[in-house]
Specification:
Blueprint: E1 3-7, E2 10-12, E3 18-25, E4 32-39, E5 46-51, E6 58-60, E7 68-73, E8 78-83, E9 92-100, H1 104-107, E10 116-117, E11 121-125
Parallel strand pairs: 2-11
Antiparallel strand pairs: 1-3, 3-8, 4-5, 4-9, 5-6, 7-8, 9-10, 9-11
Amino acid sequence: QLQLVESGGGLVQPGASLRLSCAASGRAFTVFAVGWFRQAPGKEREFVGAISAGADTTFYEDSVQGRFTISRDNAKNTVYLQANSVKPEDTAKYYCAALYQHLFYSDYARDRQYNYWGQGTQVTVSS
């Protein structure tokens, strides 16, 4: 079993930056790729970005490309989502999830393929 806990959400103004963290415990973290997803009220959950187990590959959804950066520190069992130049449309609950690395390149954007999920952290972008 792998436990994931997100943190770092909050209320921020448009154009600001924030960093979300996803802390893992319970299993060998380095066998998992990690994805970030978000869900706004009344909308379906959507893919934000993902990072491979070895941190050598990342993918991003088009609307966050160039603004969001995912990184990971396997020594700390933590994955980060750095969000810059945030917009009101980034408002959502953000979730991290773990995917077995051998599925990463084929399934990184498919939320149903992820095995473990955190509880989410709310990000609200408003002036």
